[in-house]
Structures
1.
Amino acid sequence: MPVIGELLSCCGRQLESRLEAELLMAQSLDRPRAWLYGHADEELPHAAAERLATLVQRRLAGEPVAYILGSREFFGRDFLVNPGVLIPRPETELVIELALQRLPLGPCRLIDVGTGSGCIALTLAAERPAWEITAVDLSPAALAVCASNAQRLGLERVRRLESDLLGSVAGERFDAIVSNPPYVAAGDPHLARGDLRHEPACALSAGADGLAIIQRLIAQARETLEPGGWLIVEHGHDQGPAVAGLMARSGLAEIATHRDLAGIDRVTLACRCAAGCTMVRNPASP
């Protein structure tokens, strides 16, 4: 039987990624990845070797590792994922960080628009137990994944609604709206490459310039936010000025674009100021 360490090296070369080889090996053995480091000289059982071969072939065919494993880590927690939801990405953690910075520790009503796997809504619910959180999505399949994650994390208190943006909560008010909406331009060649080929198009693409959904969300947000409430939106690397402009024209204030850890403009936020507040447009900030 083959030795684990040798197989890891071989699979790493095939996949051009040692990390992916370790993740798939750990999955085939039903062991944590860290276990591999202390057992590199052990032989891989035949059944595990067969499972590993199948997983490697799936990855070589282009299937995302997160879909193969059925989960992806986000903000220190594992979230179930499948091809019905977008795979959580590290850059989206900036949405979490900004919400935690801007909003109070105490009671707060927040809605996550286009929740997908629920990684934003459920992370915020775990980090802020006093918050009342609603997660909405147009896709019943995505809401089912969100429900599974809520159950696994003990966060069933998060309300889940099928909704086209804010349509199902018309008349309600929130202290914050957060969203990682579709923002890729329809003709972007990246949609036909890599993992994006396998992710749901409805969670990625939004019109010719990628701003169609964001524009609608901003238009609805002003009437849904409480005075002093925040809108926090993830967007593409070159969309910060356009998103800030849409927010300004909608009457929102204290507008600022923040960069992710790669130094890329990633999230723009704005406040619905109380009466008498003057609009201040801030430059991009790190």
2.
Amino acid sequence: MSASTAALSGTNFRRIDIDQYDEDRVDPSSLYHPDPRGPAQALAGAQEKDRTVRGLLQRGDVGSALKEVLREGEWPYGEDSVPETKQAKATALATVLSILNSTRSTDIPTLVQQLDPSEQVTLMKYLYKAMENLGDTSGNVVLGWHEKLTEVAGIGCIVRVMSDRRRV
């Protein structure tokens, strides 16, 4: 047995991360600009938005609640490795799901048509995130919203969600 074979026999060569030696390695954080707010500010903003949306839902103003939660630049994004960012994302998703669950299926097309294209893309991001971890949410609710949103926004909305590096 040679010296190099003896050295490799003690390690599992299939578990070695060879990408760490690549000079052209792409780091996920370099693919998009980080959230200009800090993680704590993003969490506080998500909690404040949740309180605002709950107030709007109690008054029955679902359209304003949906526009409030999808407002551009205010939803948290970034690495999930930071606990505050992860919690802010979970709070924002729970807020969106509360709107989706409290909307009658006959009102969905009207609400979706009132959204501008950037809000439609953000809503589609949240729908895919909700499909990823359904939890207490019914899959029928999420799929119903997805169907109506795709009818209004088209397939391009799905393509924009899949190609955007910023995840909600």
